[in-house]
Amino acid sequence: MREKFFDEQERIAPEERQRRQLQSLQEALKRAYDNAPSTKELFDRAGVKPSDIRTVKDLEKLPITRKGDLIELQRSNPPYGGFLTIPSEEVDRVFITPGPIYGPHHTEGISWFGKSFYAAGFRKGDIVINTPTYHMSPAGILFHEGIRACGATVVPTGVGNTDAQIRTMLDLKVTGYAGMPSFLMTIIRRAEEMGYDFRRDFSLKRAWFTGEMLPSSLRKTFEEDYGISTFQCYAVTDLGGCVAYECSEKSGMHFMDEYIIEIVDPHTGKQLPPGEVGEIVATPLHNDTWGLIRYGTGDLSSYLTEPCPCGRTSWRLSGIVGRAADAVKVRGMFIIAKQAEGVFSEFDQISRYQIIIGHKQQRDELVFKIELKDESIDKKNLSDSLAERFPQVCRVRPDRIEFVPQGTIPEERQTIVDERKWK
Question: What pTM does this model have?
Answer without folding.
Answer: 0.82
